[in-house]
Amino acid sequence: MSFLKKLKDKFQSTEQQEEVSDKYKDGLSKTRQSFSSRINDLVARYRTVDEDFFEDLEEVLISADVGVNTVMDLIDELKMEVKRQNIKDTSEMKDVISEKLVDIYYGDDAVTSSSINFQSDDLTIILFVGVNGVGKTTTIGKLAYQLKQSGKHVVMAAGDTFRAGAIEQLEEWGKRVDVEVVKQSAGSDPAAVIYDGIRAAKSRKADVLLCDTAGRLQNKVNLMNELSKVKRVIEREVPGAPHEVLLVLDATTGQNAMSQAKTFSEATDVSGIVLSKLDGTAKGGIVLAIRNELQIPVKFVGLGEKVTDLETFDAQAFVYGLFADMLQDDPEE
Amino acid sequence: MAFEGLADRLQNTIQKIKGKGKVTEQDVKEMTREVRLALLEADVNFKVVKDFVKKVKERAVGQEVMDSLTPGQQVIKVVKEELTALMGGDQSKIAVSDRPPTVIMMVGLQGAGKTTTTGKLANLLRKKHNRKPLLVAADIYRPAAINQLETLGKQLSMPVFSMGTEVNPVDIAKKGVEQAKENHDEYVIIDTAGRLHVDTDLMDELAQIKDAVKPDEIFLVVDSMTGQDAVNVAENFNDQLDISGVILTKLDGDTRGGAALSIKAVTDKPIKFAGTGEKLDEIEAFHPERMASRILGMGDVLSLIEKAQENVDEKKAKELEQKMRSASFTFDDFLDQMGQVRNMGPLDDLIGMMPGANKMKGMKNLEIDEKQINHVEAIIQSMTAKERQDPSLMNASRKKRIAKGAGRPVSEVNRLLKQFEEMKKMMKQMTNMQQGKKGKKGKGLNFPFM
Ligand SMILES: Nc1nc2c(ncn2[C@@H]2O[C@H](COP(=O)(O)OP(=O)(O)OP(=O)(O)O)[C@@H](O)[C@H]2O)c(=O)[nH]1
Ligand SMILES: [Mg+2]
């Protein structure tokens, strides 16, 4: 049985999975269409697997911001595979390509790692970090809404005391989703705000505290130190916390996202990624390399600016979404 | 693996060629392949890279590179020339309407930095051009966006026009421009909400604002970290609005910024300004040449050499050498030489141009303190002509006078005097050594204070 067929069977085994993958197919329609239809296109255009075919494939992957190194490695592996299996016809390539890509995507721990480390009967603290303008505050608003819908008591802490209007922005989200926001005045110490947030969340017996922080470029040493300090305050106040440190990455970002993931991890030990703005035309392919190189999984994807536009990242569903077009015209069907 | 600059990437091939003494077409092919990878790693769009590499290859296969004794450097030179040509010259002018106010409209994706850049531009217009701008808050969508602009307005003590979030952005823009007219403001900057280039409703809203206020400039604000998608974004905004220029933000980060090249290539619109920090004065004219070097990830060796040649006066250099040898080097000479180096551009640029400097730990974040150099200049300028010629005249009251004149503490004057004496000693030793080694031949360029 071909790999694609196996993948398909896996997804059609339960109805619930169908539903999940439909959501992905809709939300990520642009990513999915352009990616898998381009692979299909490629296969249609080239009959035989040759240098030109690989060069074009390289471009499809590069245009998704997958990154030069990952792409080169992938192409090398594919070439080896082609030799090993003595593949001549491009139609056989679909299967090989998807399998290799899935390999990278899944890693070893895909199933468990995309879930959030919630404390069942204690306060869960989630810290949000990232460069300027990626969508930290918006993601917090959306997540607060989602958690509240599922019956959790949520508190948010306005840890961005630097950017003009940042506190008001989070307050506005607080109003929108009816969640309390703990704040101090602009310019105050972010660690102190987070400390207040923890105190408030504890005394309210809240389930989850979402901590906003100011956007900062990862090469600013002082600002990264400030972030480490915020994290230390959380560690000191609640042993075992923060339970998640989520790095928000803008899907539009190119190769610099890797540097962001590395440096923010050094400073705050990032546990997961939120890939925002996937409703645009950018593919955010760099998360592949990040996952592969740094073992940081994607946990959420942002698909718009509304409260409901946040989806839990499901690697399997995501991959299924990526290859849905290919599955449809798989001749074995 | 970290980013490799083009120069590093070419090392391998260059080594190989060195042994052979003759450049083959295959060598050129290998080199252009490295050029391609370097550009892709820097986030230049793959289509743009393709066209670009083709051009480089054509030139490289010709005489220029293959006949050269230094093919690696020739390739770099060709690449840099093509890149600089593509990026265009310095174009940091803002249009001025002959019937004020001049209207500027800021557009772009979410989170690109439009609002901050609005504040920075306003600040620049006031500081550099002494103009009075009105800021218009037309982002009614993002929570607290108006508040953000109002806060910036307060920080700058500049008026902000807003009508809350219940009014259509087209009307807000129109009313804002009307008010600017009444108040005789010379500039209006309209901050619009971030939006996706594929959001037809919101793109249409921008077209309507454009129709309503007939802006003199439409600036597309783009995050310099943008990847391959930069071409789609730029193409869409340009097709629908016919933008007049681009502002690149967050260049204080460590991104290569290949998006700059992609955008220029697909829109052919000038990149006018660069945002280099979160503070409101951190905006500068965009330097295409510097950007080219940054994308290639290499010290700008060529322009360093060119600049040194342009700016160092041969005759003066000879005189200086003479003086150094006889230890008759004075503060006047010192000032003179400082001026020569200064002419080459800001010091951090010079450091940035040195190959490898951006790689050294600590160097990357190093900012040369121009202020300190200014202080040295001020101190020397506060000396009398006699004092400059003969530092031994210095006594307590003279030092005090100089310190006061320069607005620096006496201790700093003392430090400079001491350094100057040490420098003179060192120069004498150095020139003697050089003389001993290879006769009279001296170097044209010295940086005694570096
Ligand atoms: N289209 C789209 N826009 C988004 C998404 N997430 C956030 N945004 C928008 O991106 C812009 C920046 O988002 P913020 O949440 O303010 O980003 P931030 O990281 O908190 O920014 P700073 O606090 O300034 O560093 C806003 O206009 C958001 O509405 C998304 O998934 N899709
Ligand atoms: Mg924020």
From TrEMBL, chain A:
Gene3D superfamilies linked to this entry: P-loop containing nucleotide triphosphate hydrolases (3.40.50.300), Signal recognition particle SRP54, nucleotide-binding domain (1.20.120.140)
Residues holding GTP: 130-137, 212-216, 276-279
Biological role: Involved in targeting and insertion of nascent membrane proteins into the cytoplasmic membrane. Acts as a receptor for the complex formed by the signal recognition particle (SRP) and the ribosome-nascent chain (RNC).
E.C. number: 3.6.5.4
UniProt source species: Saliterribacillus persicus
Gene Ontology, cellular component aspect: cytoplasm; plasma membrane
Gene Ontology biological-process annotations: SRP-dependent cotranslational protein targeting to membrane
The encoding gene: ftsY
Alphabetic keyword roster: Cell membrane, Cytoplasm, GTP-binding, Hydrolase, Membrane, Nucleotide-binding, Receptor
Annotated membrane topology: Peripheral membrane protein
HAMAP family noted in UniProt: FtsY
GO MF annotation terms: GTP binding; GTPase activity; signal recognition particle binding
Matches recorded under InterPro entries: AAA+_ATPase (IPR003593), P-loop_NTPase (IPR027417), Signal_recog_particl_SRP54_hlx (IPR013822), SR_rcpt_FtsY (IPR004390), SRP/SRP_N (IPR036225), SRP54_GTPase_dom (IPR000897), SRP54_N_sf (IPR042101)
Protein name per the record: Signal recognition particle receptor FtsY
Family per record: Belongs to the GTP-binding SRP family. FtsY subfamily.
Subunit description: Part of the signal recognition particle protein translocation system, which is composed of SRP and FtsY.
Residue ranges annotated for the SRP54-type proteins GTP-binding domain, each copy included: 297-310
TrEMBL record, chain B:
GO biological process, one term: SRP-dependent cotranslational protein targeting to membrane
Reaction catalysis annotation: GTP + H2O = GDP + phosphate + H(+)
Matches recorded under SMART domains: AAA, SRP54, SRP54_N
Region (Disordered): 430-450
Pfam families per UniProt: SRP54, SRP54_N, SRP_SPB
Domain SRP54-type proteins GTP-binding residue range list: 270-283
Gene Ontology CC: one annotated term: signal recognition particle
Alphabetically ordered keywords of this record: Cytoplasm, GTP-binding, Hydrolase, Nucleotide-binding, Ribonucleoprotein, RNA-binding, Signal recognition particle
InterPro entries: AAA+_ATPase (IPR003593), P-loop_NTPase (IPR027417), Signal_recog_part_SRP54_M_sf (IPR036891), Signal_recog_particl_SRP54_hlx (IPR013822), Signal_recog_particle_SRP54_M (IPR004125), SRP (IPR004780), SRP54 (IPR022941), SRP54_GTPase_dom (IPR000897)
EC number assigned by the record: 3.6.5.4
Localisation: Cytoplasm
MF terms in GO: 7S RNA binding; GTP binding; GTPase activity
Chain sites annotated for binding GTP: 108-115, 191-195, 249-252
Complexes and interactors: Part of the signal recognition particle protein translocation system, which is composed of SRP and FtsY.
NCBIfam families for this protein: ffh (TIGR00959)
Domain notes from UniProt: Composed of three domains: the N-terminal N domain, which is responsible for interactions with the ribosome, the central G domain, which binds GTP, and the C-terminal M domain, which binds the RNA and the signal sequence of the RNC.
Family: Belongs to the GTP-binding SRP family. SRP54 subfamily.
Function: Involved in targeting and insertion of nascent membrane proteins into the cytoplasmic membrane. Binds to the hydrophobic signal sequence of the ribosome-nascent chain (RNC) as it emerges from the ribosomes. The SRP-RNC complex is then targeted to the cytoplasmic membrane where it interacts with the SRP receptor FtsY.
Protein name from the UniProt record: Signal recognition particle protein
Species of provenance: Saliterribacillus persicus
High-level lineage: Bacteria, Bacillati, Bacillota, Bacilli, Bacillales
